[in-house]
Automatic annotation (TrEMBL):
One of its GO terms (cellular component) is cytoplasm. Pathway: Metabolic intermediate biosynthesis; chorismate biosynthesis; chorismate from D-erythrose 4-phosphate and phosphoenolpyruvate: step 6/7. It comes from Methanoculleus taiwanensis. Gene3D superfamilies: Enolpyruvate transferase domain (3.65.10.10). GO terms for biological process: amino acid biosynthetic process; aromatic amino acid family biosynthetic process; chorismate biosynthetic process. It catalyses: 3-phosphoshikimate + phosphoenolpyruvate = 5-O-(1-carboxyvinyl)-3-phosphoshikimate + phosphate. The gene is aroA. This is 3-phosphoshikimate 1-carboxyvinyltransferase. Catalyzes the transfer of the enolpyruvyl moiety of phosphoenolpyruvate (PEP) to the 5-hydroxyl of shikimate-3-phosphate (S3P) to produce enolpyruvyl shikimate-3-phosphate and inorganic phosphate. SUPFAM superfamilies: EPT/RTPC-like. 3-phosphoshikimate binds at K21, S22, R26, S166, S167, Q168, S194, D310, K337. Monomer. It is found in: Cytoplasm. Keywords: Amino-acid biosynthesis, Aromatic amino acid biosynthesis, Cytoplasm, Transferase. The active site is at D310.
Amino acid sequence: MDVNISRSPVVDVTFSAPPSKSYTHRALIAASLAAGRSRICRPLDAEDTRLTARALRSLGVPVDWGDNEIVIDGTGGALPGGDPVTLDLGNSGTSLRLLSSIALVSPRPVVLTGNRRMLERPLGPLVEALRALGGEVAYLGRSGYPPIRVEGRFSGGTAAVDASMSSQFISSILMAGPSADGDVELKVPEMPASRSYLDVTVDVMEAFGATVGRDGYTRFRVRRGTRYTGREYTVEGDYSSASYFFAVAAICGGTVRVNCLSPASVQGDRRFLDALEAMGCLVAASGDTVTVTREDELFGITIDMSSAPDTVQTLAVVAATAATPTTITGVGHLQYKESDRVRVTAENLQRMGAGVSVGADRITITPAPLHGVTVNPVDDHRTAMSFAVLGLGVGGMTIRDAECVGKSFPGFWDALRGAGLL
């Protein structure tokens, strides 16, 4: 499916943020390992979260996905036995990484695999940590990458985790920690990539009754005997997905309001609002609504977005419409996402006329007159949504394979149409 995008006039629209993908994944896992029944209200219904739910069913967890809720009868931390099972997790890196440790809780051999891109996404640091904690993990293809086979017992102990490529290596072990035979202690020698997602992980674990000890982002502990307990849990709105709506105001001018957002959220992608404010937008919050207004031209900034990785592309396209250059740092690990996001973003902005330079851990965008192009998002949902929003400011834009947004935000195109922008 291709989507053609025309230039939009100044906007005055309201959107609702979809539920958080990160919170939905983690709530599914915590509820599956909990003692008792859980009801997850307002989950994100998207390709990635459905993959996690399907995989948990394959591991023997009763997961009933209903209308705007998921009911899970938890296993009390002891997954049932059975025949060996293969979990095909497509291109959901979150699903594969988080479930790699959950597989160690299962008494049967578990193979985790995915699509072609998934087999290019590194997994080595997580595998080494799982081996140190009792896992018998084998690579079934290239060393350091999926597919893997997980066997053994989650004995517990101490492991060092190199999370410079992904904080999900830490989150994976933490989420499974309450089911280990002993204490689990993780030492983190380098600052994790996307460290704010560790705050999300701990937030969900504690909401389901587990206790996590930590020293900032350098050491984490889950004590033997801590347990998840079933509960009713409502998934908060997603700041990553909301960033595209905020960007509409920044690029087109005018006002955008986004409902269903928690003002106290630990989501790192809230930093996107700080970036817009520093560039010249007006940002206000009231209740569960965040409002962004642009009245004058934007000016470039230099900002570290290492804790807000899913909004780097959104910020890059906004930067292309500013009056002066913008440098975004903390972006090196984005090469390991659904695509090499820095390279793809740079190439498409250059095709549109912008000046772009890329370094080891930064991207600099120098504004210039822009024109619409046809964008192939390379099956990356965030590329499709970012450049769609830029298309509203430029016109003449076509997004190829637009259905790829179903990975995280199936309602994205309908939301734009409902606001009269498509």
